[in-house]
Write a structure and sequence with these properties.
Elements (H helix, E strand, L loop, with lengths): L1 H29 L6 E4 L5 H12 L10 E2 L15 E5 L12 E5 L4 E4 L7 E4 L1
Parallel strand pairs: 1-6
Antiparallel strand pairs: 2-3, 3-4, 4-5, 5-6
């Protein structure tokens, strides 16, 4: 008898969890992409401006991972097809690694700046 009660309780919990998961997934997919702020090109750190200039010239890029696909897993940028976004390192003075700063370039000449390794983005305006 106790085993049947435990089984029913577990089954009810599993159903509630499934319903919550489905509801949450539909809510997340239906909500709009969070708005990103903007930053004027002239207000970017000098290293970010240099990175954008390198992107526009087609390189050469100082880091081997520059130009790889950015997949927008965080879903903070507008949704686009695969291969649309590319990421580029923004040099950070005094940093021995690539650091956290990046420029994300869209195929349509749009640029996004992140100073915190993809936790937030600001669209670069002219």
């Amino acid at each position: 008898m106790a085993m049947q009660s435990l089984s029913r309780l577990l089954w009810a919990f599993a159903r509630a969890l499934l319903i919550a998961t489905v509801f949450n997934a539909s809510t997340v997919s239906a909500r709009e992409v969070p708005a990103t702020g903007t930053i004027a090109f002239s207000q970017l750190p000098v290293e970010a401006r240099e990175t954008i200039q390198l992107i526009r010239r087609g390189g050469p890029f100082p880091y081997s991972r520059d130009g790889i696909e950015f997949r927008n897993r965080e879903r903070l940028l507008p949704p686009r097809p695969r291969q649309y976004y590319r990421e580029f390192t923004v040099r950070t003075p005094g940093e021995s690694t690539r650091g956290a700063r990046r420029i994300i370039a869209g195929s349509d000449e749009e640029f996004y700046y992140t100073a915190d390794h993809y936790r937030s983005f600001r669209r670069v305006t002219p």
